[in-house]
Amino acid sequence: MITLKNGSTIGKATVIVDIVPKGNVEIRPAYSMKPTQIAIHNTGNSGRGANAKAHNTYIHNMANLSPKDTGYASWHLSVDDKNIYQHIPFNETAWHTGDGSGVGSGNMTAIGIEICENVDMKDYHQAEENAIALAVLLMKEFNVPIDKVRPHQSFSGKYCPRVILKRDGSFDKFKSRIKSAYGSEKPSSSASKPSPKPQTQTSKKGDTKTTSIVDYLKSINVDSSLENRKKLAKENGIVGYTGTVAQNNNLLEKLRSGASKTIVSKPKSKPKESSKSNPKKTVINGIKTIGEIEIIGVSSSAIIMDVPNRNLARNIGTVPKGEKKPITGSVKGKNNDKGYWEVVHKGERAYISGQFGKLVK
Ligand SMILES: [Zn+2]
Fold this sequence. Notes:
This protein is an alpha/beta fold.
């Protein structure tokens, strides 16, 4: 099954399959995927009208923009009390777990379900029930065990699905609800299908000895063409990839570390505040800034990340070399000896690797 059946009913929701076009790889990367996990999200958007249909419109709008005007953000399904929209086929990856593009990452292995939380929804409980029915159907279709139905939080540390986590204190109750829905459902035709033959390929970690990125990608059945390596490099924060030995080694290391990564909670970042009054201080959207950095040390642009950790971050934009960005203070990340600048990007806190910024005022 590549898509749900358009017009069918799941829970009490009517399914609408409306796949976004290919073109913008930050929305529809079109990497092939054999789903082994399901990631549960809340949209984080409680605004009036932010229902499944609105999220479908939003993701289509993003898919039609150029990557320079979007960030890496996409998911397979949006669910509310009345509808389930499918935006991305199940045999393709999407960017929703914030844990990079390593082999075992959620982005590369999980189907992403966003549960809407708009305040004007008539029956939020029904939206969750629809998502549970959907998860059960997908578990049966793709032989996903209950322990692989996971909150977004377990992939990257992000507090998501926030409505569920806040109400229940953890993901356990929701998981039990899925479990009992799974148990109480009559075996479906898809569940009684023989399970797919186990793959005889090398382990998920791939070839652990080779020093060749091409051999490594082949060992995990990933397209090793220059074109695809360019995509992977971009997603892993390697700017201006041309396939040099150094870049290939860097990419190999990043992909391997992603494959065996353990879950790290999101580092907390507190902006440094000088106690003296400082004329350079301004406030942007409620965030105090203490000065600016200029982008240096990159060939074209520096990547802007949502968390100060390049292994876990989602790339949310770029800043061209020479341009300036307001900063709140420097954050020392664990995996970058130059740390990360905390900047203000589109009115929100965001992060740029320390070596790409020079304090200018
Ligand atoms: Zn999420």
